[in-house]
Structures are given as C-alpha cells and as structure tokens.
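Q: Could you predict the 3D structure of Phorbol-ester/DAG-type domain-containing protein?
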Amino acid sequence: MEIERYHIHVHPLTLNKEFDCDFCNESRKGHKFRCDLCNFQICFGCADILIKYHQHREHIEHSSHRHPLILLENTSNISNAKDCKMCLEKIHGQSYYCCAPCKFYIHKSCGELLEEVKHPFHPHHYLTLQMSGPWWRYHCCACGLKFDKCLRYRCGDCKLDMHPECLSLKPTIKCQGHQHDLLTLLEDMSYKSECRACGHDIKNTFYVRCVPCRLDFHVHCGPAAASLPPTVVHKNHNHPLSLVKDDSTLLECDD
Ligand SMILES: [Zn+2]
Ligand SMILES: [Zn+2]
Ligand SMILES: [Zn+2]
Ligand SMILES: [Zn+2]
Ligand SMILES: [Zn+2]
Ligand SMILES: [Zn+2]
Ligand SMILES: [Zn+2]
Ligand SMILES: [Zn+2]
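A: Sure. Here are the predicted structure tokens for Phorbol-ester/DAG-type domain-containing protein:
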C-alpha cells in the first residue's frame, strides 16, 4: 500500500511490505534482518533459527566449500526449494549443511560421503568422489546400471565408476573355481548382460557377478553354482533366499 506522496515524505512509503526471504525463499511480512549494502534480507523466523544454530552447533569444514558449514536438522519449514550443490537434487525437508551467506546447501547425506574409499570390488586403487563429468554416460561397475545423479565414485586409472549407494554391496558368495572369491548376487530387471558360461542373455533374473573381472553369470551357470551357499541374504529382499536345485535353478523365498 503506498501512501500518497508529498504529504509526509518525498519518497513513497510502504506499509508492512512483503519481501522475499533470502533463506527460506518465502514471501514474508513483518520483522526482517537486512543488509543495506547488498540487499540480503532474511525473515525473523530464519534469523532466529540461524542464530541459534550458529551459537549451539559445531561448524564443520567441508571440501566442497571454502567456509565452515552448519548442520540444520528437521527444518522442513525453512528448507524450501534449495538445490544440493553436490548431487544437484532438491533438498526436501532432509537435514542439510549450509553456508547461509553464500546460499550454499548440501544434503547431510551428501556431505557425509567420504572423498576416497577402498572397496573390495576394486581393491588395489582408491575410488574418489566425483561431481562432474558426463556422468549420464557411465555405468556402475557394481550393479550395471547407468547413473541418474552426478555423484559417483571413480577410479580414474581404470575408468571404473560406482554408485555411492552401491558401496554397500559386498562380495558375499564364496566360490572355488574362480580366482577372486568375490561374487555378488544381483537382481535387476532392466540390466541386460550375457552369461560368460553359457553365452545366453541374462535378463529378468538374479545373476552373480565378479566385479573385478567384470563377468556375469546365471546363478546356475557360474563358477559359484557348485559352491553357492544354501541361503543368501539379498539387499532387495527381507527374507533369506534359499537355493532350489532343479532344471532351472532359482532362488526362492519360503515366505
Ligand atoms: Zn525466511
Ligand atoms: Zn550485505
Ligand atoms: Zn545432495
Ligand atoms: Zn560460504
Ligand atoms: Zn550401482
Ligand atoms: Zn583402478
Ligand atoms: Zn548361463
Ligand atoms: Zn573374478
């Protein structure tokens, strides 16, 4: 609402004007904190939260940003429409680290990813966290799927990439008859590969993979077939799966 000029002041005066808070991105009224030098302004609610967090929370140093970051937890009321600077996905009510002055935000889960890891799938080199490059072109060596986010672990020497989520995959199947003892039971409906033993396609089924050798086998064809444990636990299934021996070897859940 503008009060008519000249009667009170040479410039238009406004009453309780709405403003966009630079932290929660909401249109707000009422008290605000404002920097006149650069037009930075935040609503009272955000300022209150940020001040409390600055006072009571530890700051962390993180390689993704030159300033210390504070952790904001359970703050769905002020986490509107922020993009994580690491994975480039939206932050929807999850906990996140932030540098408020720079409008720099990252998911807590992204901030906690290790920069370098060693994994039994690639035991001789470190895999390092990558955030750039044409990630959509690469396949994860562990699960065989393409990347749908930019974050990945990579061995640059071997040009080998792995999903951060797939770090939790571990070689679980011991096998004689194969040098690595490193087979992993995987299940994927969209991945298509060829069984190195029988030469037929692998699709819509469980399969075992030796990641270091980049070899896939049907469960009943692979070097593991002779030594598959009677039951295995699979990441996509709550119950142990038991091996049923017949013409088409299946892994079945009894429940
Ligand atoms: Zn705000
Ligand atoms: Zn300023
Ligand atoms: Zn993220
Ligand atoms: Zn900053
Ligand atoms: Zn993967
Ligand atoms: Zn390597
Ligand atoms: Zn086969
Ligand atoms: Zn192997």
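Q: Anything worth pointing out?
A: The first strand starts at residue 2 and ends at 3.
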